[in-house]
Design goal:
Order of helices and strands: HEHEHHEHEHEHEHEHEHHH
Number of domains: 1
Oligomer: single chain
CATH topology: TIM Barrel
Shape: globular
Strand order of the largest sheet: 1-2-3-4-5-6-7-8
Structural class: alpha/beta
Helix content: 40-55%
Radius of gyration: 18 Å
């Protein structure tokens, strides 16, 4: 099963794949442990900063080995690829799915860049290509609705690019929220009705589970989770460090994994996808 197939399966079942970023061995371990417990598929995400930190080949090797050794169904995805060049590097390295993010560019330039990646990806096999349309606020920024995706724009964008998955701006934000988030479910339903493309929710950290489930019921088939993974790991690690004089990181770091596993089990159950 490839990424396109699992996303379409989720679309028909009104479930979603939880796409999880990983940053080191410990966060990767937490992801695969939680997936093993819940029977969920694994979509491991790497950003440019994580690739720069771990190294592209090493990060991919870690992900592939973790999936294989734990007997999981899983794939590797480039999250927020900021350039065609980075996307191509990741495709050359065997990524199953890639995101080209030209959402901050003018509409026509976003179309042109996305179309280029869609065409380029064809020579690598049945690769899932994701793009973003609209403005999903960054860490600490307010989401005022002015950059939300419209149904008309989504349809025009998908028709012009042939993209497989589309991240939409409906009230979520990257990072934590200054005030309780409120997803625009009515807008999401309009987008879902306007185009058959697989819809993606970025910035799920901190969004109440009932809102995420409602979004899934209205077309979201991929839910990205990153900030809560980092935050849970670091909070747990700080508690461990404050309570021990142990200097062997091989004994200290694993103690911060269990709270992340617990978090991820809840998120996998929330999204509902199984294999």
């Amino acid at each position: 099963m490839d990424v396109k197939t699992i996303l379409r399966k989720c679309q028909s079942e009104k479930t979603a794949v939880l796409a999880t970023n990983f940053y080191n061995l410990e966060t990767l371990t937490a992801v695969v442990k939680a997936a093993g417990i819940t029977g969920a598929p694994v979509l491991l995400q790497l950003t440019r900063s994580s690739i720069d930190y771990m190294g592209l080949k090493q990060a991919v090797s870690m992900g592939r080995r973790a999936i294989e050794d734990n007997g999981l169904t899983g794939w590797i995805h480039l999250d927020h690829g900021g350039s065609v060049e980075l996307v191509e590097r990741c495709l050359d390295e065997g990524f199953d799915s890639v995101m080209i993010d030209a959402s901050e560019k003018p509409f026509e330039e976003n179309i042109e860049t996305t179309r280029k990646v869609v065409e380029m990806a064809k020579k690598y096999g049945n690769i899932n290509v994701e793009a973003e349309l609209g403005y999903v606020a960054k860490l600490g920024q307010e989401q005022d609705g002015s950059g939300f995706t419209t149904a008309a724009e989504a349809k025009a964008f998908v028709d012009a690019t042939g993209v497989d998955a589309l991240a939409v701006a409906i009230g979520s934000a990257h990072g934590f929220y200054k005030k309780p988030p409120k997803l625009d479910i009515a807008r999401l339903a309009e987008i879902h009705a306007a185009t058959p493309v697989c819809l993606v929710l970025h910035g799920s950290s901190g969004i109440p589970h009932d809102q995420v489930r409602e979004a899934i019921a209205n077309g979201i088939v991929k839910v990205n989770l990153a900030t809560e993974i980092k935050d849970t790991f670091m909070r747990a690690l700080k508690e461990v460090l404050l309570s021990t004089d142990e200097i062997d990181l091989r004994k200290v770091f694993p103690k911060a994994v269990d709270p992340v596993v617990e978090l991820l089990c809840e998120k996998y159950r929330m999204t509902g996808a199984i294999v």
